[in-house]
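Re: [help] complex structure
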Amino acid sequence: MGRGWRPLVIGGAVVVGTFALAQAQVFEPSAPAAQASGDVSRGETVFEANCASCHGEGGVGGVGPALFETGLDAAEVATAVQQGRGIMPAGIVSGQDQADAVAYVVSISSPAE
Amino acid sequence: MLIGGVSETYTDIVTSVFSSTIAAKAWFATAAVILAVVQVTTAARIYGKLRFLPERGRAIATTHRWSGRVAILCTLPVFFHCVTILGFQTPDARVALHSLVGTFLYGVFVAKVLIVRDHSLPAWALPTAGLTLASLLVVLWLSSSLWYFTNVRFGF
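Output below.
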C-alpha cells in the first residue's frame, strides 16, 4: 500500500473511533433530582420561549406531545429536558431555567381535580 | 460504558455564559462555520482565485492557518457534548444525518492535516479534502444550529 493512502487510512480510523465513542456515550448527564425549587410563573416564560414551539402554548401539544394534565412528575420532566427524548434535543434549557420550566410543566401536567 | 455524570460541572460551566448547553453548541458551531468560510476563502486566494482579495502572501496564509485552528477549537465543546453525552442517534432524518456527518468530521480533519504535510500527493487532494471538511461543517450547522435558531430560539 502506497504512502498516499495514509491520510485515508488514519482518517478512517478516526471515523471508526468517533463512532465507537459515540456508541459508548462515556458521559451521561446524571439523572436530575426532582426539582421543586423552580418558579412556576418564570417557568411559563421559559416554556413559551423554548418549548412551546413543539409542545404548544400551555403544553396542549403540537409537533411534540401534549404535556397538559398528563401527570408527569418533576423527575420525569427534568430527565427528559436534560437527556432529551425522541427528536427533542438534550439540554434545551439548563440551570435555573430548567428548574423553572420543570416546575411549570409539573404544574400544568397535574390532572385537574 | 458510562464513566461519569457531567450534569453539574459541565452544565454549570456552560450555563454561566449561555442560557443552555444546546444554545452553547449552536453558537460554537456557528463560529466554526463562519471560520470555515474564512478557510475556504483564504484557501481560494492561496490557489490564485478570488483576486479581489489582497495579494496572496503571509497575511492570507496566517489567516488561513489560524482560522482553521480556532474553527477546530470551536468544534471541541460541541464534540464533547454530541459524541460523549448524546452519542449516535437516529430518531428522525435530521438527527440521523447530523450524527452520520458528525462521525466523519474529525476523520476528514485528520486526513486533511496529513494531506497538507504530504507533498507527494496529487494537487487535487488538498482542495478536495478542504472542501469536504468545510462542506461537512456546513451540513452539521444546517442540521443543528440553524434548526435550533429557527425552531427553538435565536439567542444566547
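The helical segments of chain B are 7-14, 21-46, 58-86, 93-117, 125-142, 145-151.
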